[in-house]
Amino acid sequence: EVKSTIVTLQRVVKQRMTIKTHNWASSAHQEFHKIVREETFPIVNQVDARLQNFEIQFLKEAAKFVGDFKSLAKEADASLAKHKILELEIKRLLKAVVSQDIISIVQNASVVDTSDLQTELERFENCIIKKEIEYAKLWND
């Protein structure tokens, strides 16, 4: 008896779940259609409107990001150009200082004896190394 009841229930459920053309006008179908029209459609429309708003906001933010990125790229290019100008100026000043040191050595005739030439050359090399270190410090700061 339980088995026959289960079979009957399965048949009834299957019958009710199947919508045939002859029962579309039924009150259950009309109630279902009313629920879909009054409750489901507004929710779908609301979700669609929110999605469209999200898409618009996303596109605005993306455009702002691109604009900001381009602006930062311009600033970086300008900064790089300034650094290159400073680097050239530092090199020019370094050459001027080294040239001045050479002139000072020659004018002061500090190399009296040729045996002192090696000592003066080493002093001059040390001076160049010192200036290069100063240049490197300036560049890294």
TrEMBL record:
**What is the superkingdom listed in this entry's lineage?**
Eukaryota
Q: What is this protein called?
A: Uncharacterized protein
Organism source for this protein? Tanacetum cinerariifolium
